[in-house]
Automatic annotation (TrEMBL), chain A:
Residues 138-477 form the Aldehyde dehydrogenase domain. One of its GO terms (molecular function) is aldehyde dehydrogenase (NAD+) activity. InterPro entries: Ald_DH/histidinol_DH, Ald_DH_C, Ald_DH_N, Aldehyde_DH_dom, Aldehyde_DH_NAD(P). One of its GO terms (cellular component) is cytoplasm. This is Aldehyde dehydrogenase. It comes from the Eukaryota. It comes from Linum tenue. Belongs to the aldehyde dehydrogenase family.
UniProtKB/TrEMBL annotation, chain B:
Keywords: NAD, Oxidoreductase. This is Aldehyde dehydrogenase. Pfam families: Aldedh (PF00171). GO terms for biological process: aldehyde metabolic process; response to abscisic acid; response to water deprivation. Belongs to the aldehyde dehydrogenase family. It catalyses: an aldehyde + NAD(+) + H2O = a carboxylate + NADH + 2 H(+). Residues 4-415 form the Aldehyde dehydrogenase domain. One of its GO terms (cellular component) is cytoplasm. One of its GO terms (molecular function) is aldehyde dehydrogenase (NAD+) activity. The lineage of its organism: Eukaryota, Viridiplantae, Streptophyta, Embryophyta, Tracheophyta. It comes from Linum tenue. SUPFAM superfamilies: ALDH-like.
Length: 522, 466
């Protein structure tokens, strides 16, 4: 189904409205309410409740927006048994394996996990971090205090509309900020549900949702925010950062790129292929920022790889993959047209070895594999973000480094190999947001590592404590007493003082002692 | 030039531990051997007293190098991260990758996190700039570390290029220009800007010590021309006369009866800045609030340590960063009112409080946003290299010093390692009703079933049920 812009009663949202919104949020923040531990805990708990209560509605919204596989929702029929904890872990386990369950369960599961981690750790995160001081500032004590930035703008994306909206909001709340969420208009049912749920469950003075498209977003970007987080593409990322520059607003940008997968020989091919499929077609049918984009393998190994892919794809999605209910559709006709163009490119004619079927009315494209694609074809020059998988063949697996490094830095890079040296070389020489060895996409679920891009794939990171840090200013504070004042520090500067200062800085212990406790003047 | 640096970076030479250490040692050597040249250049540019030059610049550079050399091996090591049961079996780590080619505008602090560097010193301190250019060529690897001298056109040309990171130290106005240029290439930035750094002074302090530390943080810092120098003071109406008298005495003690003749105080950096400062002082409603100093010498570019009492909030001297030897004192009825005064202005790079009142200290730290703070002293927090140095809001973004410098110029890359064992078919389609049952069983509390599933031993080939 084609994209529809949400039709409500037409309230023109322009500069004035944007300004007013920011002011309201600023007043709320200045009142101090968002800084209290109890406020933060209450909001996080409300988000948990919100997730629990709204599963069905979330499923419906996702289905409307993206026709995500339905099955996942039934998996998520949780009841109030004592198995709750285990159920959480169970669902989490499923989700964290980056499985093809892309619907509400994945997103809600991850959101709830983020809340729980934050609730558990919040006191630790908020506590100032003591810092060691040295002799030169003796006597003193020092600490790094985490201070909220103030009012945050979060601009989210359409492909995981709940996860990519609420996960950052959790970070902003945990850090004590007021926040405005602008969900993507390309997932209008989800956007509208988010607005409804936030108003119902959260503190509406300090946490707001604005729905809208380009003009609304532009109006918002004109305002002064204390931090902006944007998830999306590089083109709009530049616009966001340029707008932020006018107000010296720091930004986090979660963008994209072409995530390469290097496939070595001498691996457990079946497992590798299954993980590849899960990360590609199991993730919104390739429409995910960390989905494998293209494969690099040797000419020798390619036939085996292609065969294995065909076998497993059929096992997973059956014979009529265009109709499979376990695959998401393409989000809208623009993207459908874009992907079709990639397939119609002259340079790839004859290279399709699997799939290629399309249904324009239903916006569906079957899992498609292209073999021996040339580096200058269209499909190799933009992030695919769809169910097409090009395979580039090389004479030698080491050539993959050149290919990868000749492009812009991707959000993720993957390699399947048992060769220790190759693993090391990959980690050392491939610059990417994150790297996974022998799997795809799951690093997203490990909250003890930062999730973010580098270069064209973005700046800044979040997840777990990194979310809290992303939305906090780390303020250095030193405490001194009035004792221990060294005359050395002050003019008039005699030759003697200069010599003493040098001795001090040079670390001569005796000189230091003399200087430090110098009650006597020079 | 950027192309050439990129090639140098791609060659991999800047990534090696040996190269980094050699450059750091080169800097340390340079600063050590050429100390007198450096001091001389600083004197030429700023009439900076040798001791101030030594403490503020040479010694800091040396200790930064030493710190980096000592810490480097640790900093370069990947940081292990815990993985949970949910991605079992796996291990994870965070690897620090150099970003590539970085541009540093206006500071001494060379990135040593394996990047190739272009340094663009400030043209306003020309002797230092040209000395730096010469020294870097002599002491460092000039295929990977370069100095470009110049003013606006050169800087603009540099900013048009694609860098992997830019660190800019300077004004908020230019900071916006730098960030806008960086946005075109999605280049992350560290901006060290300024602001009006307030010092709040309570009446219960050891006045003599407080005064000395305030003077040290104002006139001993390049004569007020420092981003973290004390910009203005807030104190109670009652205490102000005592404070002013204390400052007067302290200034005389340190700089003599005629501070303009003192060798222990820097001059104003340029005629343009001199003119600006005189303008601040001579504004209507400010000039009549003078309580100390005020003399100026345009040939020698010197202005006395000057104090004005309660200039109007709308006057320029209370609106812009002073960056000079003029010190406004703002009086309030009750010290708590100072928070509002400070928070009504853009967030400063540093804020200071002198008090013995523990509650006031706590309130200050909690309710005054700023880059960093010192309680009962000035400037000091920036010398503690176990803490980040940077601004917030108008005073900047990002930070550096110590390991934070290393981190500022590194990309923290997550790396997750998995093995081929432990693969659960549950993860994969088709999502049959049977799988659904298994998953429900899993979720309804079957711990054994869950464990089995985790280890990849429950599969869709049987109705294994918990």
């Amino acid at each position: 189904m084609a994209t529809t812009i949400e039709e409500k009663e037409v309230t023109v949202f322009g500069e004035e409205e944007a300004k007013q919104l920011v002011n309201e949020l600023r007043v709320a923040y200045d009142s101090g309410r968002t800084r209290s531990y109890s406020w933060r805990v209450a909001q996080l708990k409300n988000i948990l409740r919100m997730c629990d209560d709204s599963e069905k509605e979330v499923v419906e919204a996702l289905h409307k927006d993206l026709a995500k596989p339905e099955l996942e929702s039934t998996l998520y029929e949780r009841d109030n048994t004592g198995g709750r904890q285990l159920a959480n872990i169970g669902v989490l386990y499923l989700m964290k394996w980056g499985d093809a369950v892309v619907g509400s369960a994945l997103q809600l599961g991850m959101i709830k996990n983020a809340c729980k981690v934050a609730l558990k750790e919040l006191k630790n995160w908020i506590r100032p971090e003591k810092a060691k001081t040295s002799l030169t500032t003796f006597p003193s004590s020092a600490e790094i205090v985490s201070e909220p930035f103030g009012v945050i703008l979060i601009i989210s994306a359409w492909n995981y509309p709940f996860l990519l909206s609420i996960d950052p909001v959790i970070g902003a709340i945990a850090a004590g900020n007021a926040v405005l969420l602008k969900p993507s208009e390309l997932a209008p049912a989800s956007s509208s549900l988010l607005a409804k749920l936030f108003a119902q469950y959260l503190d509406t003075c300090s946490i707001k949702v604005v729905e809208g498209a380009v003009s609304e977003t532009s109006a918002l970007l004109e305002q002064k925010w204390d931090k902006i987080m944007y998830t999306g593409n590089g083109r709009v990322g530049r616009i966001v950062m340029a707008a932020a520059a006018k107000h010296l607003t720091p930004v986090i940008m979660e963008l994209g790129g072409k995530c390469p997968v290097v496939v070595d020989s001498d691996i457990n091919l079946q497992v590798a292929v299954r993980r590849l499929i899960a990360g590609k077609w199991g993730c919104n049918n390739g429409q995910a920022c960390i989905s494998p984009d293209y494969i690099l393998t040797t000419k020798d190994y390619a036939p085996k790889l292609v065969d294995a892919l065909k076998t497993e794809l059929e096992k997973f999605y059956g014979k009529n993959q265009l109709e499979s209910k376990d695959l998401s559709r393409i989000v809208n006709s623009n993207h459908f047209a874009r992907l079709s163009k990639l397939l119609e490119d002259e340079k790839v004619s004859g290279k399709i070895v699997y799939g290629g079927e399309r249904d324009k009315d239903k916006l569906r494209i079957a899992p498609t594999i292209l073999l021996d694609v040339l580096r200058d074809s269209l499909i190799m020059n933009e992030e695919i973000f769809g169910p097409l998988l090009p395979i580039l063949t090389l004479n030698n697996i080491d050539e993959s480094f050149n290919v990868i490094n000749s492009g812009t830095k991707p959000l993720a890079a993957y390699i399947f190999t048992n060769n220790k040296k190759l693993k090391e070389k990959f980690v050392m020489s491939v610059s990417a947001g994150g790297i996974v060895i022998n799997d795809t996409t799951i690093h997203m679920a490990v909250h003890t590592v930062p999730f973010g891009g580098v270069g064209e794939s973005g700046m800044g990171s979040y997840h777990g404590k990194f979310s809290f840090d992303a939305f906090s200013h780390k303020k250095a504070v030193v405490y001194r007493s009035f004792t221990g004042d060294a005359a050395l520090r002050y003019p008039p500067y005699t030759g003697f003082k200069l010599r003493m200062m040098k001795a001090l800085m040079g670390g001569s212990f005796l000189a230091i002692l003399r200087a430090l406790f110098g009650g006597s003047k020079s | 030039m950027v192309k050439q640096l990129r090639q140098s970076f791609k060659s991999g030479k800047t990534k090696s531990y040996q190269w980094r250490v050699s450059q750091l040692k080169g800097i340390a050597k340079m600063v050590e051997e050429r100390e007198s040249d450096i001091v001389q250049a600083l004197y030429q540019d700023l009439s900076k007293p040798p001791l101030e030059a030594f403490v503020a610049e040479i010694s800091m550079a040396k200790s930064s190098c030493r710190e980096a050399i000592e810490g480097l091996q640790d900093w370069m090591k990947p940081e292990k991260a815990k993985t949970g049961i949910s991605t079992y079996p796996s291990t994870a780590e965070i690897v620090s990758d150099p970003l590539g080619v970085v541009l540093v505008i206006s500071t001494w602090n060379f990135p040593f996190s394996g990047n190739a560097v272009v340094l663009k010193p400030s043209e306003i301190a020309p002797a230092t700039s040209s000395l730096l250019s010469k020294l870097v060529k002599d002491y460092l690897d000039d295929s990977a570390v370069k100095v470009v001298e110049g003013a606006i056109p050169e800087t603009s040309a540099l900013l048009d290029q694609q860098w992997d990171k830019i660190l800019y130290t300077g004004s908020a106005r230019v900071g916006r220009i730098v960030m806008a240029a960086a946005a075109k290439h999605l280049t992350p930035v560290v901006l060290e800007l300024g602001g009006k750094c307030p010092a709040v002074v309570d009446s219960n302090v050891n006045l003599e010590v407080a005064v000395r530390r305030i003077i040290a943080g104002k006139w001993q810092c390049n004569n007020g021309q420092a981003c973290i120098g004390v910009d203005y003071i807030i104190t109670t109406k009652d205490f102000a006369p005592k404070l002013i008298e204390g400052l007067r005495k302290g200034i005389e003690e340190f700089f003599g009866k005629d501070p303009m003749e003192s060798k222990d105080i820097s001059r104003i950096v340029s005629p343009a800045q001199f003119k600006r400062l005189v303008g601040l002082l001579d504004e209507d409603n400010v000039s009549d609030k003078l309580v100390l100093g005020g003399r100026r010498d345009s040939t020698r570019l010197k202005i006395d340590p000057t104090i004005v009492l309660d200039p109007p909030q709308e006057s320029q001297i209370m609106q812009e960063e002073i960056f000079g030897p003029l010190l406004p004192i703002v009086t309030v009825g009750n010290l708590k009112e100072s928070f509002q005064v400070i928070n009504s202005k853009p967030k400063p790079l540093a804020a200071y409080l002198f008090t013995e009142d523990e509650q006031l200290k706590q309130d200050f730290v909690e309710n005054v946003p700023s880059g960093g703070m010192s309680i009962n002293d000035t400037i000091l927090h920036v010398t503690v290299h176990t803490m980040p140095f940077g601004g917030v809001g108008e005073s900047g973004m990002g930070s550096y010093h110590g390991k934070f410098s290393f981190d500022a110029f590194s990309h923290k890359k997550s790396v997750l390692y998995r093995s081929f064992s432990g693969d659960a078919s549950l993860r994969y389609p088709p999502y049959t009703p049977k799988k659904q049952m298994v998953m429900k069983g899993l979720m309804n509390g079957g711990l054994p079933g869950m464990l089995l599933a985790l280890l990849g031993w429950s599969s869709h080939n049987s109705g294994t049920k918990s």
